[in-house]
Structures are given as structure tokens and as C-alpha cells.
Structure to design on (492 residues):
């Protein structure tokens, strides 16, 4: 199946040793970089949308809603047409695509992060503040850990979806997995089905692993099976178990 | 120094204006056809996945798992390039010569991708209708069809509608993937005009406005028709 005409290496790495990195490795790399970048940018956008300053709130809200309302291809067009004008130099297409995909994904990530933050009970924040934690410490130690734990399965399934979105990069001229399949199909027209099956199978394997991870996280975090929840059900040794066990003379 | 001469007049040149108007209409038509098809596909898959017959359940589960884990773009290309090869030669030849096959392939590809997601939403919605409701329907002497149409569908549709609306907006945006098979829709028109005039920003701005208006008004209309039920959390009801 994988012979000289369409070697497996073409699908996995593109023309890598001789030319640029491509194939499945490119998709994975782009998805990883865009995911991490957008996770950071998403925090800024989510906090901006929850901010007290009206202008900041409106600006972040407008960006998130606009990007989420248009297709990825249009966002890619924006960056491919705007970057050369803004920077006065032509960036390599991979760089432009990475920036565009990060900007696109950060709008989605911002919404996940915002949902996570809003799922933290207001009482938690009040309790942390009244215990004397600074606002920064409240965010870093109380709100964000709970928000992220709540949204972990969503992040995992968004990574899968972002990975699938990277297939669009072939439309702007990158040699990604989809494009290597088309190249292979063009080299051997009689064996088109093989080329498509390989591309589909490779996409499937990575996405399937991603969605398994998402559902494993979901199971792990669900209230019935989560280790922390099980621990919480068991009373801490130092706390009184029942009101009847309390010292009756405590208030005397 | 930033320098870019905006030239909005290119959008009004007859040949480009025609491309853009045609493209917008084709995008809307494709979204409508693919959305309707995916609704049917999703409902059938959801019924098969909840069916007591294992011979129906397992193939449907497998199909949904495969479709969901491969990009929509792959399915669009698959229906356009590969399907005619898989069919008997006479049929394949017929598809090759059918001028609207590019539209049909695009609609099938998008509908398949979206149908897999919709079947998930619909299956979860059906499972959520309480068992008591079904038992009550059966005890009232309703047939399976009556039970599905009068009890199951109305109740589950109401809870599923926000999620379905969300997927329909995805279909509208995913129509832009059909650039890959040169279907002359809005993104294709944008790309064409840019490659002829090198005035990318004006055209992209227009396309952005059309897509944003389309998906925001779709979201608004669907949320007006089917208000999202509040999510109940330990600290009260809230809308997410």
C-alpha cells in the first residue's frame, strides 16, 4: 500500500527531509501551537469581557462575537491580506497561518474560560477575599483552578476540533495532511481511494485519541466518580462527624 | 509607513458584483439544503442508535464515530472526488456529467458531518425524556408512532433546539469549505476577486459582513423562537 509512489512518510511528514515540514506532523504542530497560544490569549479576552471597564468589555465582546460569527477561511484571508500591509514584509505562509489560527481559536477559548469562571460560585470569591487573599491570589488560587477543572473536557474536545480545523490550511497553500493526500492521488490516479483512506484514517486516529481523552476527563471529573468528590464525602478526621459529637460545653 | 489605497469601486464593477451576489445566494442555498439534509440524517442516525436492534445500533454508532473524527473538508472532497469512483462506472459517469454535482457533493458532505453531531444531540435529548412519560403513553394505548410523534418529539425538541441551532450556524459557516471543490459560493468569489484585482481587504471585509450578518441573525432568530432553558446549578438557575 505504501510504496515509492505514495510513501507513508509523505502523509506523515510531507517533503520534510528535502523540503518544508508537512503532512500530519504539520497539522499536529499547528494545532498544538495555536491551542497553547489561544489558551493564553483567551484568558485576556475572557477577563476583558468580565471587566468593570465598559470599553474593554465591549471591545473584547465584539472581537469574540465577530470571530465566532465568521468561517475560519475568512479569518485566514484577513491575516493573509492584512499582515503584508501592516508589517511591510511578507511572512512565510506557515507563520501567517499560525497567527491567524491562534487569533481565531482565542475567541472560542475565551468563551470556554468565561463559562468556567462563571461556573465558580460567587461565594468562593467572597470567602477568599474575606480570608484576606489579594485579588490576584483569589484569581490564581481560587477562581482559575476551579474554572479550568470544570472546563477540562471542553478544552480536550476543542483541541480535537481545532485539529480538524487545521485541514483548512491546505486552502491557503500549506502542504498539510489533506494536501499530501491530494498530491498522492494526483501521482497515482488509479489509487485515489487508497490515498483518501490513508488521509481519513490518520485524521481519525488523532481525533479519536483526542475525543477518548475528553470523555475520560469527563468521567473522571463527574461528581459521582471524581476522586476529590469521593474524598469530600469521607469526613476529614479532624472535623466532628455529627452535631451530636460536638462538645456540649463549647458554648457554655 | 502603512499604505493601502482602498478602492471600493471594484465591488460595484458588474462582473464582480454579479460574482458576489451569486456567491451569497449560493452560500445561503447550500446552507439551507445541507441543514435540512443533516436534520433528516441526524434524526435517522439517532433513531438507529437508540434502537433495540443491535444490527441497526452498531453500524450507526460506528458511522457516527468515524464521521465525527474526520474533518468536514474531507467529507466534501470525498463526495466530490471519490464517490463517483466507488459507484458502478455508468453511475459515476452520470455524476461526472451532472453540472450540479458540485453543489450536491458539497451538500452531502456538509450534511453528513453535521448529521453525526445532530444525532448526538438528538439521542441525548431523546434519552432525557423521562421513562415515565413513555410508559404513560404506552399505557394510554398509543402506538409506537403516536408515542414518538406526540410525546417524545415535542418534549425532546424543545430541550434540543438551542444545541441544534448552534450546529446550523456551523453549517452556514462551513459552506466556506466548498472553496476546495470550486463551488462558486461567497468565499470562492472573494478569493477570485482578490486574485484578479489584488484588492483583498475590500472583498474580505464585505464577505465578513455577509457571514457575520448571516450567522448573528440566524442565532438571534433561533434564540427568539426557542429560548434556551436555564441551566440549574447548585446555586440557582442561570443562563450560560
Amino acid at each position: 500500500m505504501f510504496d515509492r509512489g505514495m510513501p507513508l512518510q509523505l502523509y506523515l511528514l510531507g517533503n520534510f527531509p528535502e523540503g518544508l515540514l508537512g503532512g500530519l506532523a504539520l497539522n499536529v504542530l499547528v494545532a498544538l501551537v495555536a491551542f497553547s497560544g489561544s489558551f493564553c490569549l483567551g484568558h485576556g479576552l475572557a477577563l476583558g469581557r468580565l471587566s468593570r471597564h465598559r470599553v474593554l468589555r465591549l471591545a473584547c465582546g465584539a472581537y469574540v462575537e465577530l470571530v465566532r460569527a465568521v468561517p475560519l477561511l475568512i479569518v485566514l484571508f484577513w491575516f493573509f491580506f492584512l499582515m503584508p500591509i501592516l508589517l511591510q514584509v511578507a511572512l512565510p505562509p506557515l507563520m501567517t497561518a499560525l497567527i491567524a489560527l491562534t487569533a481565531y481559536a482565542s475567541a472560542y477559548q475565551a468563551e470556554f474560560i468565561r463559562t468556567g469562571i462563571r461556573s465558580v460560585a460567587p461565594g468562593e470569591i467572597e470567602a477568599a477575599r474575606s480570608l484576606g487573599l489579594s485579588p490576584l491570589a483569589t484569581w490564581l488560587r481560587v477562581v482559575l483552578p476551579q474554572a479550568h477543572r470544570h472546563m477540562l473536557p471542553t478544552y480536550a474536545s476543542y483541541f480535537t476540533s481545532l485539529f480538524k480545523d487545521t485541514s483548512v490550511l491546505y486552502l491557503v497553500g500549506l502542504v498539510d495532511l489533506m494536501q499530501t493526500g491530494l498530491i498522492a492521488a494526483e501521482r497515482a490516479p488509479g489509487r485515489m481511494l487508497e490515498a483518501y483512506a490513508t488521509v481519513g484514517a490518520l485524521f481519525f486516529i488523532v481525533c479519536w485519541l483526542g475525543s477518548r481523552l475528553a470523555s475520560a476527563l469527563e468521567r473522571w471529573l463527574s461528581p459521582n466518580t471524581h476522586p476529590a468528590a469521593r474524598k469530600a464525602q469521607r469526613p476529614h478526621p479532624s472535623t466532628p462527624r455529627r452535631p451530636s459529637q460536638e462538645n456540649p460545653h463549647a458554648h457554655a | 509607513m502603512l499604505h493601502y489605497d482602498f478602492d471600493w469601486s471594484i465591488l460595484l464593477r458588474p462582473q464582480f458584483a454579479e460574482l458576489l451576489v451569486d456567491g451569497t445566494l449560493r452560500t445561503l442555498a447550500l446552507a439551507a439544503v445541507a441543514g435540512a439534509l443533516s436534520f433528516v440524517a441526524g434524526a435517522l442516525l439517532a433513531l438507529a442508535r437508540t434502537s433495540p436492534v443491535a444490527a441497526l445500533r452498531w453500524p450507526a454508532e460506528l458511522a457516527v464515530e468515524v464521521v465525527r473524527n474526520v474533518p468536514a473538508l474531507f467529507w466534501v472532497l470525498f463526495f466530490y472526488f471519490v464517490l463517483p469512483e466507488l459507484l458502478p462506472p455508468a453511475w459515476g459517469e452520470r455524476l461526472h456529467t451532472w453540472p450540479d454535482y458540485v453543489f450536491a457533493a458539497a451538500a452531502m458532505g456538509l450534511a453528513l458531518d453535521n448529521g453525526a453531531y445532530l444525532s448526538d444531540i438528538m439521542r441525548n435529548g431523546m434519552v432525557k425524556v423521562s421513562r415515565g412519560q413513555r410508559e404513560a403513553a404506552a399505557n394510554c394505548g398509543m402506538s409506537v408512532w403516536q408515542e414518538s410523534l406526540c410525546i417524545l418529539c415535542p418534549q425532546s425538541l424543545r430541550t434540543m433546539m438551542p444545541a441544534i441551532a448552534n450546529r446550523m450556524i456551523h453549517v452556514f459557516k462551513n459552506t466556506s469549505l466548498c472553496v476546495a471543490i470550486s463551488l462558486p459560493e461567497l468565499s470562492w468569489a472573494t478569493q477570485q476577486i482578490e486574485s484578479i484585482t489584488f484588492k483583498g481587504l475590500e472583498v474580505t471585509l464585505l464577505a465578513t459582513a455577509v457571514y457575520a450578518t448571516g450567522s448573528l441573525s440566524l442565532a438571534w432568530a433561533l434564540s427568539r423562537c426557542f429560548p434556551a432553558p436555564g441551566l440549574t446549578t447548585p446555586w440557582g438557575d442561570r443562563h450560560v
About this structure: Confidence is low (pLDDT under 50) at residues 230-240 of chain B. Chain B touches chain A through 44 residues (CB under 8 Å). Residues 14-50 of chain B form the longest helix (37 residues). The first strand of chain B starts at residue 231 and ends at 233.
